[in-house]
Specification:
The structure is a single chain. With about 150 residues, the chain is α+β, with helices and mostly antiparallel strands. The chain contains four helices and seven strands, in the order βααβββαβαββ. The model has no long low-confidence stretch (mean pLDDT about 90). Helices cover about 30% and strands about 30% of the residues. The longest helix has 15 residues, at about 15-25. It has helices spanning about 15-25, 35-50, 90-100, 115-125; strands at about 5, 55-60, 60-70, 75-80, 105-110, 125-135, 140-145.
């Protein structure tokens, strides 16, 4: 079963939002992501879809993950992989695609306690370049950046 990368389309919205909720709920069970769905759907439609290139990873028509990358700024806002597919190389495929789409740099924010994600980004050549705080959750973040030949 081959994993296929393809561009996001409007028909993917419900699957992407469901995947976002399932994934974040497992990563942070103490947060009620179900109560954030209206906010997330509005953010998805109004902030991400209009500016980001979104690439979907799927197998046999089932969405396994997606990445959003703003090709103008190099900002990777979302990398989401279905929990049942963690450690299967899908995150790597999606980040590599983000690098291809934004070859000058990729920058992102990651929760400081998300050790799994931080380890993946470091493995893929990202470095911690600063710290911040999430305007949505108030959690501390690392700013991470990849540039070719870093």
């Amino acid at each position: 079963m081959t994993i296929k990368l393809r561009p996001y389309c409007a028909a993917d919205e419900d699957a992407a939002i469901d995947l976002w909720q399932r994934t974040w709920q497992i990563a942070y069970p103490q947060i009620a992501f179900g109560k954030r769905l209206e906010w997330w759907r509005a953010r998805w439609r109004d902030e991400l879809v209009p500016v980001a290139t979104i690439v979907v990873a799927e197998r046999d028509g089932t969405m396994l993950g997606f990445v959003t990358i703003d090709q103008k700024t190099g900002y990777l806002d979302q990398l989401v992989v279905a929990p049942e597919s963690w450690r299967a190389g899908i995150g790597r495929l999606l980040v590599d695609e983000a690098k291809r789409l934004s070859p000058e740099k990729v920058e992102l924010h990651v929760n400081q306690d998300n050790e799994r994600a931080i380890a993946l980004y470091v493995e893929l050549g990202f470095a911690i370049t600063g710290e911040s705080v999430s305007k949505h959750s108030g959690l501390p973040l690392y700013v991470m950046r990849w540039q070719p030949n870093d």
